[in-house]
Structure formats: C-alpha cells, structure tokens
Amino acid sequence: MIICSRCGKENQDQFKYCLGCGSKLQVAVPAPEDPFRATPVAPEPAPLGMAKTFSPPPPTALADPESAVAFQATRFQAPAPAAAAVVRPVASPGSAPHVVRASGAIGGQRTAPTSTGPASAPSRAPTPAAGQEASRPRPVTSQQDATAAASRLATAPTAWRPGGASTAAPIPSAAAGPRVSVAAVQAPVRSTGQPSPSVAPPAPVGAAAAYPLATAAPIPPAASGPTLCPRCGNPVSTGFAFCGACGHRMKPAAGAVVEAALEQAAALAPEPVKATVRGQLTLIRPDGTEGGSHPLHQGENLVGRGQGHLFDSDPYLSPRHAEFVLTEAGLEVRDLRSLNGVFVKLTQEETLESGDTLRIGQELLRFDAISPPSPLEDGTEIIGTPNPGYWGRLSVIVGRDVDGPAFPLFDETVVLGRERGDILFPEDGYVSGTHAQITLRDGHVYLTDLGSSNGTFLRVRDARAVSSGSLLLMGQQLFRVAHQ
Amino acid sequence: MSTKPCPTCGNPVPIGDRFCGQCGTRIEVPSAPNPNAGVGKTMFFSGVQAAGIAKLVVVKANSADGLAYELGGTEHMVGRTEGAILFAEDPLVSPRHANFFYRDGKLLVRDEGSINGVFVRIRTPTRLESGSVFLVGEQLLQIEALAPDFGPQPDAEGTYFYASPKRASKMRVVQRLRGGEIGLIVRARGDSVTLGREENDLNFPDDPFISGRHAEVTIAPDGVFTVNDLGSKNGTFVRITDESPLEHGDYVFLGQQLLRVEIS
Questions:
Q1: Taken in order A429, A432, A434, A438, is the CA torsion positive or negative?
Q2: Which of A186, A266, B101, B216 lies in disulfide reach of B75, CB 3.0 to 4.6 Å?
Q3: What residues of chain A, 118 to 157, have a C-beta less than 8 Å from chain B?
Q4: Which neighbouring-strand residues pair with A408?
Q5: CB < 8 Å to B165, chain A
Q6: Cα dihedral angle (A86, A88, A93, A96), rounded to 10 degrees?
Q7: pTM of this prediction?
Q8: CA of B11, closest CA in chain A: separation in Å?
Q9: Are strands A423-424 and A413-417 parallel, antiparallel or unpaired?
Q10: What is the 3-state secondary structure (H, E, C) of B96-113?
C-alpha cells in the first residue's frame, strides 16, 4: 500500500500514479521528499544509492536507442542526441543541482550502462575533467553537481569515502559507464532507472549524486530550495508533481528511482492485469520483436515524451502527443495537435481527404486535391499552365511547412513505389517496389497499400477508433494496440 | 525592301520571309501589310504609321496578325473593361491591366496592378528575383531560392519534426496551374535547371508550344536567378515587376493576348 503524499489516498503497491490525484507515487523505500533535507540521515540513502546502481539493466528496448527506432533505424538517427543536448536548455545551468533535461539521454546516454559502461568507467574516473564533460554537448545530465562533486573529489578524495556512501560509491562508479567520477553515481540513475530525461526533474538525480558527498562535505546551499521547472523555469516546491506555472509534470525526487526500477520490472515482466488496465501499447522494434509495453487504463491515457519509459527517449514525440480513450465502446486515439502526429497502418482501403498526410518508407507525403479554377471577384482568372486534368497533388514534406518535390496526380490510379509505378522514390530503401496506390473513384480519393513490406501509414486527422491489433506510428516508434 | 529583326538572332529578315536566313528561326508573322487585312476590322492608320509612333499587333494562335492598335497618344490603358484597348473576352486580363506609354520618346509598358501581370519576351539573359514567374510554352513557372538547411531543429517543446529525407538543393521550380494551384515542384540538383520538351532537367513532353531545349535558369551564389532563352521558337517571357521599356520586335503577353510591338 502506498499512501499518496499529495492527497493521502491509498494505492496498491504496483501503482505508479495516484488514483486519487494523479501524482506520481513515491514507492517502497521511505524516500524522503526532500532529498537535501534528508541527506544528513546518512545511512539510509545508501541502500537507495545501491538500488539505483544495481537496478536491473534498462528494458532492452531502450538499451539501444538506435534500435529503439522502430520501423526505420537509419533515418531516424538524424537529429543526433548531441544536437539535442546542445539545443535543449539545461535547466538553468547556473542554479545548480537541477540536473536534468539531459537532453542527451534521449539517445545516446542510455547505452552507457549496458554497453561500454562498466568497462570504460574506471579509466575516466574521478578527475576534474568532469567539468569539461559538462560543457560538452554530451547528453549527460547537467553536470553541475557532478562537477562540483568531482572537483570535491579531486581535491579531497578521501573526504567522502568515510561517509555513509562509502560502500555505494565505488560500485556506482563501476557501473557508471562513460560518465565521470561522481557523475557516475548519478549517471546510472538516469541510465538504468530513469528513462525520462526530458521530464526528469531537477532534484532526484542531483540529490542522488550529492548524497555521498553530503556526509563528508556540505552540499552547496544552492542545492536546496525549490526546484526549477525544466520547461518554463518557474520554481516548483519540492514534492509538487506538476509545475504551477505551466503544468509540466515534475517527477518526485528520490521516489523516481524506485519507481523507475518498478517500471523496468513492469516492462520486463508481462504487465499484470489490473481492474483498470484493459489494454496496452506494445513497442515493436525494427526487427519485429517486442520492446516493452505501456498499459492503457480505462478512461483517458496520455501518451507523450515524459509519459512513460517507452516514450521518453523519442525526441519526435511531443510532451503531450496523443490521448488514448478506452471505454466500453472501444479504444479511440486522439492526436493532441502533436508535432508529428499519430499514424495508423493501413489494413484496408482508406479515404484520403485533401490535406491528409501519409507515410511510406521514410517518405512523409501530403495529398492535396486540385480544384478547378474559379474566377476572382472581379471576374479575372488566375493565369497559369492549362490544367491537363490534374485532380490532386502529392507533396514530399521535407521540413516543417516545407514542401520538397510535388507530383501532380493525373490518372485515376496512381501507383507509388521504389521501382515501378507513377511516382517513384528510388532512393528510399524502405519503400517497396510497388508500395501503395491512390485512386480517384466516384469523386472520392482512396489510399490502398499494395502489400508493401513496411506498410502504408495514414495520419489520424483528429481522432479515430483503433481496433485491437492495430499498428500505430507515434514519433519514431511503432506500437501495437491491444485492448479487451 | 523593308526588314525586321529576327526575334532570336537579330538578323534582319526581309518582310514576307517565313524563316530567318541566318538562324532558321520561324518568323511568326508573315507580315506583308495586306491592304485588305483591315476589311471588316478596325484599323488604325495602318498605312501611314508616323515615325516614332508604335503599334501593337495582336498575334493570333495561327501566327497571323489580328488587330493592330496604333499607340498615337501618350498613355494607352489596356484592360478587360477599362481603357483604350479592350480585351473583353479574355478572363485573364484584369479590368485595368497595363499601360503603354511614352516617356522621353521611348515606349514603355507598366503593370497597372493586374492580377496576372505583364510578361515580356526576353532577348538576353535576364535577372530574376526569387519568387519570380516566367512563361515557357504554356508553362507558367515560378523559381524560388531555397534557404540553406541547418538540419533538424526542435520546436519550443523540444520535439523534432519528422520529415522525409532530402537532397540539398538551392532552388526549386514550381509549376503554377491556371487558377493558382500548384502542379509540380522540382528541386534542382545543381545550380541550374534546363527546361524544354525533352532531354532537359525538366521536360514538358505534352506542351506543343515548348521547344526541345527551351530555356535555362541559373542561380548565382547571391540567390539571384538568371533566365536564358536557348533559342526557342516561341520565346521565354518574364513577368515585369513594374515597368519595362519596349523596342521594335518585342513581344508582350497580357492574359492570353500576345502582342507584338512595332515601332517604325
């Protein structure tokens, strides 16, 4: 039984969010709400630290961010995590322990613990280099405290060992991966347990990292006080689950770690069927295997970057991306005006409307109807090439509001493919020889998949019912929907 | 025997010849003034054109001359419903479309804010700004410089936009359909695009008015375009931005009306 720290409601142990108020539940270990205040209580945090470091490897789906790119790996790596790291504002770097938004975690970082982690860690160990590392666009969490910690280490390496964390310390560094020194303590937390970089709140990681130090050296004052919202920068009181200014979800401090571990367990083990869980989204990896699942509860289920470990590493997901509404009538998915939308894989012929967006292979295409010319108010018609009978146009979208090549649709059936057809994408290896077709019939336009290997996907306009077994493309990942 | 310059090479061609003796270009106007041509039509002093006074000759689809309008005043408004020269049946001509006027003894044409603009046939490589339109055959094409691509950038929420893979390109050609819709869009692979009926970067095999190799558009590093006619039969026309001087032998498109300028 977990008692919600916010509203006091009792929740079952496996719950991650309070049934009463939606707050993230702080599980198991009586995690102090304010890690900084709690730090003096030396021994207690230690197990916590251990737990983090030794928490099981991340779900395999996340182990390799590149492969997490369901569908088409090569292409999706494009915006390298590094880039993300550069652009993404680390929440007020100056104001210290607010780790987080470690952009990079979006892609590269997660590899650390599983792959190179233990091996490379020692070599890079506790040197002041941590500071440099922090300045690089490396995905790592804002190294603020790590840096501080590292320098502390460097200057007084012995100082912290005697502390309560002494047992924990060496181990984390071993498991830490390419991160640095004390950052090691913090890195694995993120990498193994905390898969939501973008949402990762200021406090938790920093707190964890600061822990061992706390016993030996006092934490800089900057470490305490309200955390800053990673999205809007508004100070948020510790323990609040949401930013008061913008509504951004803040993860609870120390609880996050355990909670993350639970998430992993949940991902590795089959999802326990609870009364309210009536469906799930299963991640389908590029090789066709399953990469974990996300439960769908009765009612509304928000999906987005920061809403679950399956989604947190995908920079193509909006924070509020889509909503799955599960009712007795079935499951409906609503696109919450996300940047990249929700696409459903075609299983039958679908109607195309002007402005619809579709995906074949790596190509993002938009269909527009071409209407016959009509005169302006003063009776003038707009000059141009006489229309030989084009009834529509298919544009390749090459950027936000940027069209690349565009192909007029002339015949009543237009075949898209890599090798054969009317509109060819010879350079896209994910497009089948003949892939899909667009048909004009009785004044309506239809899209059909022609047995392609990777499928044809149509963007959900606003909302649509999805049946169990449907495949959905959200961000760069492919999910299979299942519900009762 | 009087001559007129070949529209392609400028060689003087005797009036009445149907092909240029130097380059072989078909001369569209077998313009031996036929005294009977004006029977049943309005003719403006065709026999006694005063020196320095220009004439606009409507070129018909069959290359024969239609009406000729003598520009005897100082300003000559052309429009569908207003002006001295009316094309009431042409829906592509704005109510007030263009003005042919003299300044310092020179003839000029000015776009009077028409919807569809005034197109003048180019004689030499002509500079165009990004976004300009020009005519080759029946094709109304727009050229646009493309901004350099700085790679994916996240939006305010930190989300990246998924887009199709693309090749870097400096410019694109957009086909504008009658009515304003976009037909096709082609992104250039290099610094220039050749246009024509066949064996060009961009081909319009079904356009009967386009030459095999018709025109070429080149982009300079500063993003300014140059359009060059490659000796096409029907010429390449660019839309003028404000006003443009006219010379003898120039061709002007107003809506669907092709006008030849004759200045004695």
A1: negative
A2: B101
A3: none
A4: A393
A5: 75, 362-363, 427-428
A6: -120
A7: 0.58
A8: 32
A9: parallel
A10: CCEEEEEECCEEEEEECC
